Amino acid sequence: MTILNLSGIVFGLVGIVFTIFLTFKVLENSPGNEKMQKISGAIQTGARAFLISEYKILYVIVGIIFILLGLTNGWMMALAFFLGATLSVLSGFFGMSIATKTNTRTAQGAIHSLSNGLKIAFNGGAIMGMTVASLGLFGLGLVFYLTNGDTISMSGYAMGASLVALFARVGGGIFTKAADVGADLVGKTEAGIPEDDPRNPAVIADNVGDNVGDVAGMGADLYESFVGSIFSASALGVILFSEKGATFPFIVVSIGIISAIIGILVFNFNLKDKENVDPSKALHFGMYIANILTLIGVFFLSLIFLKTLKPFYVIFLGMVVGMLIGSITEYYTAKEPVKHLAKSAVSGAAPLLINGMAVGMESTAIPVILISLATIVSYNLLGLFGIALAGVGMLATLGITLAIDAYGPIADNAGGIAQMAELEPYVRERTDALDAVGNTTAAIGKGFAIGSAALTALALFASYTKVVNLEIIDLAKSQVFIGALVGGMLPFLFSSMAMKAVGDAAEIMVEEVRRQFREIVGLMEGKADPDYSSCVAIATKGALKKMVLPSLLAVFMPIIMFFILGKEAVAGMLVGTTVSGVMLAIFMANSGGAWDNAKKYIETGEFGGKGSFAHKAAVIGDTVGDPFKDTAGPAINILIKLMSIVSIVVIPILIKIFQ
Amino acid sequence: MTILNLSGIVFGLVGIVFTIFLTFKVLENSPGNEKMQKISGAIQTGARAFLISEYKILYVIVGIIFILLGLTNGWMMALAFFLGATLSVLSGFFGMSIATKTNTRTAQGAIHSLSNGLKIAFNGGAIMGMTVASLGLFGLGLVFYLTNGDTISMSGYAMGASLVALFARVGGGIFTKAADVGADLVGKTEAGIPEDDPRNPAVIADNVGDNVGDVAGMGADLYESFVGSIFSASALGVILFSEKGATFPFIVVSIGIISAIIGILVFNFNLKDKENVDPSKALHFGMYIANILTLIGVFFLSLIFLKTLKPFYVIFLGMVVGMLIGSITEYYTAKEPVKHLAKSAVSGAAPLLINGMAVGMESTAIPVILISLATIVSYNLLGLFGIALAGVGMLATLGITLAIDAYGPIADNAGGIAQMAELEPYVRERTDALDAVGNTTAAIGKGFAIGSAALTALALFASYTKVVNLEIIDLAKSQVFIGALVGGMLPFLFSSMAMKAVGDAAEIMVEEVRRQFREIVGLMEGKADPDYSSCVAIATKGALKKMVLPSLLAVFMPIIMFFILGKEAVAGMLVGTTVSGVMLAIFMANSGGAWDNAKKYIETGEFGGKGSFAHKAAVIGDTVGDPFKDTAGPAINILIKLMSIVSIVVIPILIKIFQ
To answer: What Pfam families does the record point to (chains A, B) (predicted)?
Structure first.
């Protein structure tokens, strides 16, 4: 044990201290007038209430698993599991609380200038990003240090992170899209009132959804990815470089955290006392700084610590591939294909939907080839450790990439508040501009997330084969093939459950919104207030009721498969789930993104603009895309990894007990 | 070589003779009045013209492959390939020609009585079914006999069948859905005229599409499945039971053909001189007779010829699993889920689309479990031969199951002719009743098709590993994993191409139909005729231009993968394609089916009936489902098998040349 084994704890704490400092800076800004604060308060109350109800259900399951793990595999691993889950919950809750406090401050800041709004929104996102990265590194670093790099305990930590992530993504995803679909269907399509109109009874639920789904859900998601990639790299690194290999990923991520802090500071310094800035340039600049600094750090680290530049090459490759996947994602969801897609809306909703699905399906091709390329090259350089390390490379600067991701919903919410609080139209224009930039820059973050998910899944699969002593997983055996077939089916079944939950909850929401428009006298004239809370309650109920079953699917399927067809079939199942899951996740995310932007493109006045036949078709496309891109799609990435981690943790225990 | 090796040739010829007899019987019926004949003639001309253009392109590719195979692997295999392709083309062309002659006779028959219409439509379908089964058995039997059971030559035959099938499915599927979507979008949605209204310029193209897609395409598809399953069973049977094992599948299918003939005769006998019958009962009865007779025959064959009942068990299991998958398919596309789906149309197109995709995704679960069950049990009984044989069991009575499948589009077309020729409304009601029954009974046929595709794909995969001498396909190797990942992507890319082709061609069609409504004076008042031929030309052009690339994908991907990552990666790729392809195919087919029937359910008067808000939403759902269920979905099954057969045929040649 060298002092370097403390790096996770130390730099995790550095990140935490910086986050607290940043939080105070952000909260210094004015939260705006009374009406804005009232609206923001309502969003906050709804979001917190939902998260607390969600955590209550979650902790029943966490508690059961904690006890089972403790009894069968010792309490150290059980504690690691509990810590992994709890730090995820904390980072989601804290990050989201700050985000809900930042949105009104962003709206207020945008009154003064675009750059002011940009700075506040970005820093709000940075708090989320840094919280997730710091707590993730700190927690896993703590387990690593205390257990002397025990892989089993770390896998428990990763399992806790994955379990919370799946619940948060599924629950938050159902909530946000039930509210969004419900609000849009009646508000925009039937009543013809604009987005975020305070007369829409579902408008608060919609904004709450942005926070619990897009902020808290995404935070838990990336916490999971981050932890999963470090864990798998550390577990595989020890095989190749013994102790140094196990420590290496922690140091890489520590460099990433410091680089992210510098990137965030540079961003803020650049904006100081400036009235007008190009938000896209500013965001990109901060991110590039962080990535370049990380690469420089990793270069010297590889050379000095591991005496080879191969880890540097692999991490560099991971970053490049992540950025390329991001560019492809951006191309399919924001460039030519979207314009072509928007044109098909002129022929109606059906061609738009058909073509949108075609775009999403096509968009799987190049990312898969890039991932394959990254896999081959890094495998040839450093074996399985290389594959895991490429995944770490994609997430090393998470503190700032997630900042840019989380900045989007904050700007979106700020726009909602500006609208509802009836601020001057130019404020909304500014927040819209901020939001638009966020959508594009977020594409790179998505690229990192997709790429790292696939590589981490592969690394976790390899770890599974090691912990259950499988030298060979022979596809020519019928049980392995069947495992792959059943595994391939699971992402479809899982998506079906998630989408049905959104569809069902949205239907109840639509009825409720219609009822309020019908029954509350003076609502459309703005003389009476709608009942926001009943819509929040519908989304909450729908989400909580429907999130449990799909999440348990991930936990139980590896166990069931093990009992029926054995450990080799479980390996087949993990591959099947990865293969069909990666495709389905990319397809759903990008179809949804393309529809969203096709609608936005039409709203700029193309093909008849707002209110035209094409626009109506585009609204349908956007609505269908909502559960694609924000509920089922992103959750599949977690499903894949959670199944792998459950297999790593549970199957060895079952083998011990039953064989 | 025993006399039994001739069984394929002999019983194939018996089937052909019976088919010719049946054809004369069907053509004896009156083709109806002059107007009906004129319409039927227009459909026939369009359909034949399309097929001939399609075959011209196809034969360029067939010719190139023929020469390449001949030069590298001997002319016997090349000839087998050519024969496999040509008999497929012939059966598609002949079957479709009869179908287009039967539709007007069905409409005419329905004037007299429901049972009359039923008989003619069924016999028309039976001609298709018997043509496909007889020519398939005869051709493969001929190759088997001439080459003394040479697996390589038979694989050439199967490759010819698969290649044609993919072209026919993709080309026909694009044609039919471009026409259908185009006709519906403007006709039903914008102009508000009913289905099959002669004022709709795309109406002839729509009816041509039913024939080239649903009849000729489906015929080639099942010819391929039939040939593929017999080939793989024969190739694997020889390993277990030597010569007898190779012959066994041919005899099973011969029994199936005789049983189908008896089933068809019993059906006709039952309807003799009856005015009113329950069409569903009559169709089911014929099919059950055929299946029971086959089982009895196989029971004695197993006992006497192979001295074990295991093959009987496996075939029995295959039939039961096929029927169960059929029932599940029917449940998801016609029962409770469809009613629930129809209800969501009340909230709009978006919830309907979301829920419809959820239904399709969910519907993958039980079929996959049933297929897994069939695989395990038959593998335990007879090894890989058992898996292939279970697939043969599902298709043994193809002569009659395909009859029921092909009967659907004939009844559908008859309805179109009744409408366009302005026959009395009761005629249309009768043809609609026939069509409705066809949709349900066809579910069982679909179950057989899905089940056998998965099992045959598995058997072909096993054959591939044998011909390239792969004892083990180790998923823990990164190139195998990458093969699986890239393979899993292909069905998505392929579907994307197919759907985009439909979307693009439909858009051009929509513009053309709108133009005609706008520019042809008196069209809507029925005083002027539309220009049908321009719409047929658009669909033809769209289909021919876009069918080549996706089809070549299947041919070239195994070759490319072999050169980059080797033969084990190709095995990984085949598994990846099977895993994601089976799911995608079931998902697309059943989502499409569910939307179709949800629309029909609303049209019975539920949730506001025709013209209501819910109905408009349901029409959008149906339109989106069209390329799902009739273009991309069914073609994926062929893609999976064609890739396997190309690998079986081409990779050993490449190994010989380059290693």
So the answer is: H_PPase
Q: Could you give the C-alpha distances from A295 to A176, A229, A301, A320, B644, in angstroms and in order?
A: 37, 18, 10, 11, 44
Task: Identify the residue whose tokens are 């050169």.
Answer: B563
Query: How far, in Å, are A137, A407, A556, B153, B482 from residue A644 at the CA level?
Result: 21, 31, 12, 43, 17
d(CA B531, CA B540): 15
Burial of A326 (0-12, 13-18, 19+ CB in 10 A): buried
In this prediction the ipTM stands at 0.93
- Name every chain B residue with its beta carbon within 8 A of the beta carbon of A489: 364-365, 368, 583
How far apart are alpha carbons A205 and A537 in whole angstroms?
A: 8
Question: How far is B23 from B102, CA to CA, in rounded Å?
Answer: 10
- Tens of pLDDT, residue by residue over B9-43, are 999 999 999 999 999 999 999 998 888 988 888 88
Nearest to A159 by CA among A641, A582, A578, A656: A641
Rounded Cα distance between B364 and A192, Å, is: 38
Q: Do B579 and A487 touch (CB under 8 A)?
A: yes
The pLDDT value given to residue B226:
93
Q: Does A495 touch chain B (CB under 8 A)?
A: yes
- What tokens were used for A93? 């809750």
C-alpha to C-alpha distances, A213 to A172, A174, B11, B75, B334, nearest whole angstrom:
4, 8, 63, 63, 35
d(CA B44, nearest CA chain A) in Å: 28
pLDDT band at B318 (very low <50, low <70, confident <90, very high): very high
Q: Which amino acid is at B74?
A: G
Mean of per-residue pLDDT scores for chain A = 90
Indicate yes or no: CB of B623 within 8 angstroms of CB of A350: yes
Number of residues written out for chain B: 659
Which of B654, B647, B646, B623 lies closest to B571 in space, CA to CA? B647
pLDDT digits (tens, 9 = 90+) for A263-286: 999 999 988 877 777 888 888 889
Work out the pLDDT band at A315, boundaries 50, 70, 90: very high
Entry field: residues in chain A: 659
Is the Cβ–Cβ distance between B434 and B118 less than 8 Å? yes
- Measured between CB atoms, which of B181, B353, B365 is closest to A489? B365
Q: Which of A355, A576, A624 sits opposite B503 (nearest CB)?
A: A355
Instruction: Yes or no: say if B248 and B254 are a contact pair by the CB < 8 Å rule.
Output: no
Best interface-test mutation with A: which of B381, B575, B588 has the largest number of A CBs within 10 A?
B575
CB–CB of B624 and A387 under 8 A? Answer: no
Do residue A485 and residue B350 have CB atoms under 8 angstroms apart? Answer: no
- Does residue A111 have a pLDDT over 80? yes
Q: What is the DSSP string of B236-289?
A: HHHHHHHHHHHHHHHHHHHHHHHHHHHHHHHHHHHHTT-S---HHHHHHHHHHH
Share of chain B above pLDDT 90, in %: 54
Least confident of B88-97, B412-421, B477-486: B412-421
* CA distances in angstroms from B13 to A371, B61, B135, B139, B250, listed in the order given: 52, 29, 8, 10, 13
The CA distances from residue A333 to A338, A344, B298, B628, in Å, are 6, 15, 56, 22
| Residue A152: alpha-carbon gap to chain centroid | 26
Q: Quick check: A358 and B503 CB within 8 A?
A: yes
d(CA A105, CA A95): 15
Q: Which amino acid is at A435?
A: D
Q: H or E element: which one contains A410? A: helix A398-420
What number of CA atoms fall less than 13 Å from residue B121's CA on the CB side? 36
**B266 vs B405: CA distance, rounded Å:** 18
Rounded to whole angstroms, the Cα distance separating A122 from A400 reads: 9
Q: In this structure, are residues B392 and B247 in contact, taking their beta carbons and an 8 Å threshold?
A: no
